[in-house]
Structures are given as structure tokens and as C-alpha cells.
Specification:
By secondary structure, this protein is of the alpha/beta class. It folds into two domains: 189 residues, Rossmann fold (3-Layer(aba) Sandwich); 155 residues, 3-Layer(aba) Sandwich (Rossmann fold). The chain has twelve helices and eight strands. It has a four-stranded parallel β-sheet with strand order 2-1-3-4, sandwiched between helices. Strand 3, helix 5 and strand 4 form a beta-alpha-beta unit. It is found in: Cytoplasm.
């Protein structure tokens, strides 16, 4: 397989080199508190904080979990029960916690293989084990300089800034701010370790379809990610860049999808003639609120009229096979394909793919070693993404700005 070449490049557009006051200076390492976009000096982290969304692990957990997810929005339990049916279909158990246990174990094995002395503490935003317990446990063990890995690769409020706000909130509520610091690895949407499993999955799907005699024009690749409100998407990434519709969130997905298809075309010439599209799933807001489109099911319904006979559904926005992959893609989108008379295959998420696991530890070592930005690998021209978020990055329009680590005010 061809891997990305590490080549120098200039600071990505929209990332200034100035420093300014960072949010929660007592909550970040001294290096991150400088406000520089890239931390290019070594930082002596002594533990890793694996941060994720969390999920219920039994029928009795489902509604309390969904209350946590929607806290502050005033959504009644009757409406939550509509979403709960997805979890109840699987016995009330989300796969995400089991997947994070497997990821933690894989990270620990990779850390041991490299001879690093870094314990991994795992905490969730919405269900046990919670982030506050993980940070408190780390502190009790004498680990004060944490580097966080969140299980979200792209830039948006829910996939980046909300985690940064969670870290600041936990340090404030536990009283550990100023005693424990939490930095965060860069968003890794275009890191080779994250991208390679998608390349492998799409390549396998296309080889199978082509071997069965399908013409490239009869195949469509649908790169799917979670839809978000347009007003939030438009505020993702640095605010001084015109990212186009969907902000940095959409731009990042488009860039990665293009990189995946370009890589495959170098080994399967016919793949260069296969069309692809970025689509969205899992919309949950009111019909009156604009969200990113098109919806994957709407696109699937239109494909037979375009002469398409087979599709590859690629969960490009997701790191593992959690509920919105199992339900929205393996259930709903697959049913839509069957109703449209299309062959379909859903390609794998990174999960605990060795390339992905190694890539996450590469990101940690970047910060341990102070690797210059010009030497950091990436698969798109948008990267490497910055270590310290720029002012106003990924605002939540509904809730406004809250204190957040690893960023510059506001």
C-alpha cells in the first residue's frame, strides 16, 4: 500500500502565527498556553486520556443516557423514547463502550510495544465511565499532565469543541484545575492512520464489484458522515477562512474522500471512473432547522435512474461501528439500497485497525517530541490540523461559548 509522504508545507490557511490569551491557562500545559497553533517543543505528558461519547449498556440505561445526551434542551421522555427504539433493538446496549474497551487495550499494547510509560485513562461524556472519574483517577495515581485523544476526527462543535469544554468543566468541577492539565491531540481526519482503513475498505469493495463485471459507471461510492445544523457547520474551523457551505467540517470530509479515491485509482485504474459523493445521515433536529444535506437515503433512491447498480457505503465520519453506523447505515441505508434494487456493501470503520491504533499513538508522540508541523504526516492539503484551536473555532450557536481547554479565546 502506498503511504503518505511526509513533506514540508507552510502553515495551513487560516492559522495565524500570533499568540494571544488562551482559554483556561491553568488547565493547559505551559506550551499549549502560549497560544501558538502548533506545539513544536517537547511536552512531558505522563498519561493519556481517552475521551468518548459513551452509551447505555442495558435497557434500564437507555432513557437516563439519552437525558444526559440532550441535557439542557428540555426534550420530554416521550420523544427520547423514539430514539430509544434504536438502542432497544440491540437489547439496550450500545456497542460503543465495548469498542472503547477494545481500543484502550489496543492503545496500551501499542504503547508497550514502543516502550512508552503512559497509562491510558478512559472517560465518557454521557455515560459511565465518566470523564470526571477518569481525570480524578489519573490525579490520584500522580498523573498531572494529560494528553487527550477524543474519538472524533473532524472539526465541529460536537466532535471537537464540546470535548474541550468537557475537559475544562471537569477540571473546574473536580477542583483539579491548576493541578492537572489537559492538552488534546490535533484533529486527525487526514492522518494516514485514520484514512488507511477507509482506503482498504473501499478498494476491496470496488475490486469485488469490478470482478463481478460491473462497469465503473454502474458503481457509486457514498461517503457518509453525521449531519449537523448548518449554522454550526458554517462555524466549524477557523472563522477567518471561507470554507464554503458546511464550513471546515464539510471541507475536511470532502478532502479525505477525494484522497481515498485518488489513492485507490493509483492501484485500480478503473476506479478513477467511479463517481463518489459526500452524503449525510442521522439528522435529529426539527424540520424547520436547516441541516447538512443530502441525506444518504434520498441519494440512494435517485441512483437507479442514473444507471447505478451497486453502491459502497463508507462511514467516513466515524471511528467505530457504534449505534449510528449499525442502525442508520447497516439497517436504514441498506434497506434503502435493497428497495432501490441496488447491491450494497458497507465498508469498515477504523475500529482497532493496526494502522489507526498506531496513528493515534503517533499523534501523542508528536506532542511528546515536539514534532515540527512541517514534518507531520497528512493525506490532504488541509493538514496537519492545529494543536491549539483558533479564536471562535466551532462555536455552538445555541449555547454560545463556554470555557474550553486547548484553544484561544473565545
Amino acid at each position: 500500500m502506498e503511504h503518505v509522504t511526509e513533506q514540508p508545507h507552510e502553515t495551513p490557511v487560516g492559522i495565524d502565527e500570533t499568540t494571544t490569551e488562551t482559554q483556561g491557562p491553568l488547565y493547559a500545559s505551559a506550551a499549549a498556553s502560549s497560544g501558538a497553533p502548533f506545539i513544536e517543543t517537547p511536552v512531558a505528558y505522563d498519561a493519556i486520556l481517552l475521551a468518548s461519547f459513551g452509551g447505555p449498556e442495558g435497557q434500564d440505561d437507555v432513557i437516563p443516557f439519552l437525558r444526559n445526551v440532550t441535557r439542557g434542551r428540555g426534550i420530554p421522555d416521550e420523544r427520547l423514547e423514539e430514539v430509544a427504539t434504536h438502542y432497544r433493538h440491540f437489547g439496550g446496549v450500545s456497542p460503543i463502550n465495548a469498542q472503547n474497551r477494545a481500543l484502550k487495550e489496543a492503545l496500551e499494547a501499542e504503547i508497550a510495544r514502543r516502550g512508552l510509560d503512559l497509562p491510558v485513562y478512559w472517560g465518557n461524556r454521557n455515560w459511565a465511565p465518566f470523564l470526571d472519574a477518569a481525570v480524578t483517577e489519573a490525579d490520584a495515581a500522580g498523573h498531572r499532565n494529560l494528553i487527550a485523544i477524543s474519538t472524533s476526527a473532524y472539526s465541529s462543535f460536537s466532535s471537537c469543541r464540546q470535548y474541550r469544554e468537557d475537559f475544562a468543566r471537569v477540571l473546574e468541577e473536580t477542583g483539579l484545575g491548576g493541578r492537572v492539565s489537559i492538552d488534546k491531540v490535533r484533529q486527525f481526519f487526514d492522518h494516514p492512520g485514520f484514512v488507511q482503513p477507509f482506503i482498504d475498505g473501499v478498494e476491496a469493495a470496488l475490486r469485488d464489484y469490478l470482478a463481478d463485471g460491473l462497469a465503473p459507471a454502474e458503481i457509486r461510492v457514498l461517503f457518509s458522515t453525521h449531519s449537523v445544523p448548518m449554522q454550526d457547520a458554517d462555524r466549524s474551523g477557523p472563522r477567518d477562512v471561507d470554507w464554503g457551505e458546511g464550513g471546515a467540517y464539510a471541507a475536511q470530509h470532502l478532502a479525505v474522500a477525494e484522497a481515498v479515491m485518488a489513492d485507490i485509482a493509483t492501484r485500480i485504474p478503473e476506479a478513477a471512473e467511479v463517481s463518489w459523493k459526500l452524503v449525510y445521515q442521522s439528522r435529529s433536529g426539527p424540520a424547520s432547522q436547516p441541516w447538512l444535506e443530502p441525506d444518504i437515503n434520498d441519494v440512494i433512491a435517485e441512483l437507479p435512474a442514473e444507471g447505478v447498480r451497486a453502491i459502497a457505503i463508507v462511514p467516513l465520519g466515524f471511528v467505530s461501528d457504534h449505534m449510528e453506523v449499525l442502525w442508520d447505515l447497516d439497517n436504514e441505508a441498506t434497506e434503502s439500497a435493497a428497495e432501490a434494487g441496488l447491491r450494497s456493501v458497507r465498508t469498515p470503520t477504523p475500529g482497532v485497525d493496526p494502522a489507526y491504533v498506531a496513528g493515534l499513538i503517533d499523534l501523542v508522540e508528536e506532542r511528546l517530541n515536539g514534532t515540527p508541523a512541517a514534518e507531520r504526516p497528512r493525506r490532504t492539503d488541509l493538514g496537519p490540523w492545529f494543536d491549539v484551536c483558533r479564536p471562535g473555532c466551532c462555536e455552538n450557536v445555541r449555547a454560545g461559548f463556554k470555557p474550553a481547554v486547548a484553544g484561544i479565546l473565545p
